[in-house]
Structures are given as C-alpha cells and as structure tokens.
User: What shape does this take?
Amino acid sequence: MKRNVIEINEEKCVGCGLCAGACMQGAIEIIDGKAKLVSESYCDGLGMCLPKCPVDAIHVVEKETDQFDPSRKNIKAKSNEASDKKNLEPLACGCPGTASKSIQRTAQIESLGVLTSQQVKHEPVASIGLIGSELMQWPVQLRLVSPNAPYFKDADLLIAADCTAFAYGDFHRDFIKGKVTVIGCPKLDDNQYNTDKIAQILSENDIKSITVVRMEVPCCGGMIQAVRQAMLKAQCIVPYTEVTISSEGRVL
Assistant: This one.
C-alpha cells in the first residue's frame, strides 16, 4: 500500500537521539551512531520526529510500503507509564554532547580563584586569575541546537561567526553575557541551512533581540545575510545589532 513514512538522511544525521526520543512508536533507534528506521511498519507517518532533528535529516515521503502496525501506537507512552526514569537515562547514542541544557551562573567558586565579570571590571589586570565563563546554554553550534529548546524563549540571541571568540579577547564578557549563543561559519557551513535554522528559531520563540558578531573578512558577510533573510522568512523583525571584529581583535 502507498502511505507516508519517514526517510532519514544518514549523511546529515549527527546521532543526537532526539528523533528517537520523540517517536512514540519506537520506530527509530540509534545504531552505530546514526538514526535508523527499525521498520517502516512501525512508522505512523505523522512526522512527530521532524521538528526535533537539529540538522534537518528527516523527511516524510510517500511510498509503497507495509501497512502501519497499530499495536505500535503510543508504545513509548505506555512504557513511560510503567517507568518514570526516562529523564535519568543517557541519550540512546551514548553521547551527551548534543543534549540541550541551560547553565546557571549565579555564583562563581572563589576557592578556585574564578572571578565574575563584575569583579574583573574592578580588578587590576595583573591580579586577575581565572575568569568565569558567561555561557548560558549547551550546545552552541547552530547545526546542533534544537529550535524549540527552552532556553530560546524570550532570549536575547547572540549569533557569532566561529572565529570571533578567538580573535576578540573579552568575548564572553562583552558579547556572551546575558545572551543565548549560537555559532557557525558562513564559509564552511551551508548558509541556506543556517538561514532556515535561524528562521525556525525565530518562528518558534519570542526572541527579544539579535546581536550578530562577524569577522572583517568578506566571507563572514554570509552570516549577516543569513540572519537578515531568516527574519524575513520568519516574518519576525526584532531589534538587531551588527558587530565586526578585526583579525587583530578590535571592534571596527
């Protein structure tokens, strides 16, 4: 019979396991670091896994295949009723690197000599020890973040080219602090993908503002282009700031 089922592009798949967690039929498993459809008869074709994929590796296609097995309906929901340990289990891929999480920075550990940004501003340069990170969430790579991660709600968004944090010494203090951060490379990445991903973030969240930090090199203009096109695509225009960093580490 002809019906809708999902199709997974394994070349794009990063093995994060988010799709497997979203599939209520248990039709998707992470095998050898890649998401795989266990059986087309397990897939109901509704595509609940699609919005969870951070790299757009899953699509719904219509094809001749086996009939959906109704015994699989909500199999995961039934399993969860018997066990409340789901949130304590590791990701199916065994790699927590792509799991979304917020980072609370309410206090720094004085015993380790870590200074807050506020302390650094009042300390002579010679007396500064370890400077605390201002990163508020994980992951940060644009290809890995989930557009519906809770930390995006009502966020001030920093979108930065990869090289900027290495070129500018006070990047955490001057740019990351107080913002949700995503990074990417307009030269090495698929810039259309970046545009679509940013548009999805804007569409699904009440983003309060966007700050774009780029390098002075011409190829970095692709990051500006991606953000502007994303705002138009999402029909969501928010307060917007552009900052350019020189290769010597100065704000231009």
Observations:
- The CA atoms of residues 148 and 204 lie 6 Å apart.
- Residues 82-94, 107-117 have pLDDT under 50 and may be disordered.
- The longest helix spans residues 191-204.
